[in-house]
Amino acid sequence: MIAPSGKQIEIVAGDQRAVAVEVGGGLRSYTAGGRDVIDGYDASAMSVSGRGQVLIPWPNRLQDGSYEFEGSRHQLPLNEPERRNAIHGLVRWAAWRLLEREPHRAVMTHILYPQPGYPFTLKLSIEYALSSSGLRVGTTAASFGGGAHPYLTLELEASIP
């Protein structure tokens, strides 16, 4: 069976474990010391609410899906139609591929080709690396907007009087 998020790329270092995914190139899970650090999702499920997804070439919402760049007006599809927005970029559901892999790190890559409303080409890569300092997510510097939805968890300890 093919997982809704595609291939699962697991990296491990000590007591840390992270899973990046082929669909969207995002981070499905990250645990350290046996505890969930992000509120991820199961391999048998799709990402919901942007959970773990990469948000490129813009990280938020474009009202009416319209923007101007260098004197030209561009119109994107409205993928949040009830609010008339183009939301969270164009790579959330795109296939990414594994470019490099070591036990503790993985580099995912994707070429975003021109499309209606975004007539530009971007060659993207995201590195997920585990070390004694934790998880590092890195990208190459470029002139575009990007973001992520890691959904961090919070463990509360109950105080017993």
How would you describe this structure to a colleague?
The protein has strands spanning 8-13, 16-21, 27-32, 35-36, 54-55, 61-63, 66-69, 72-75, 85-87, 97-102, 105-112, 122-131, 134-139, 147-148. It is an all-beta fold. The protein has one domain: Beta-galactosidase, Chain A, domain 5 (Distorted Sandwich). The strands form 5 sheets. It has a 4-stranded antiparallel sheet with strand order 1-2-3-4, with no helix packed on it. The protein is globular, with a radius of gyration of 17 Å.
Give a quick set of tags describing it.
161 residues; mainly beta; 14 strands
Question: Short summary of the structure?
Answer:
The chain has 161 residues and is mostly beta strands.
**Overall pLDDT confidence:** 90
What is the chain-wise order of helices and strands?
EEEEEEEEEEEEEE
The fraction of residues in strands falls at 35-45%
**Fraction of residues in helix:** under 10%
Overall body shape: globular
* Number of strand elements: 14
Spatial strand sequence of the major β-sheet = 1-2-3-4
DSSP helical segment count:
0
